[in-house]
Amino acid sequence: MTPISSTPPALRSKVPDSEKITINLGYVDLGHIDLLVSEGFYANRTDFIRTAIRNQLSTQNEAVRQVVARKMLVLGLQRFGRTDLETVQAAGQQLEIRVLGLASIEDDVTPELAQATIASVTVLGAFHASAAVKAALAGRIG
């Protein structure tokens, strides 16, 4: 699958560079984090958590690289607009979207066009699309 990107630069700037998550921590772990923050090792709790996650991802980098290659995942951001999907439709093809990062279907894509051109969606990270497009692809999102 070849990544498609014909998104105008003005639309690219709308994509957030992060996704908000919520985690639950035990009081002792939270206390340790607060101690390190108060001692100036980290700017705040978020800085500590981001650093810990990056360190863990760095440690597991080779395993991630192998899985990305084995599962043929696109790494990073992959966006699809109406023009992209109309090109796929005109070629009589369907896409199997596989992304590690962010997959985004633009607001100009109708549910019918998405259903006609997207065979499956597998995203490890975040999948942004309108509620109508997500509903049209509900049985194809894994």
TrEMBL record:
<dbReference type="InterPro" id="IPR041088">
    <property type="entry name" value="RHH_8"/>
</dbReference>
<protein>
    <submittedName>
        <fullName>Arc/MetJ-type ribon-helix-helix transcriptional regulator</fullName>
    </submittedName>
</protein>
<dbReference type="GO" id="GO:0006355">
    <property type="term" value="P:regulation of DNA-templated transcription"/>
</dbReference>
<dbReference type="InterPro" id="IPR010985">
    <property type="entry name" value="Ribbon_hlx_hlx"/>
</dbReference>
<dbReference type="Pfam" id="PF17723">
    <property type="entry name" value="RHH_8"/>
</dbReference>
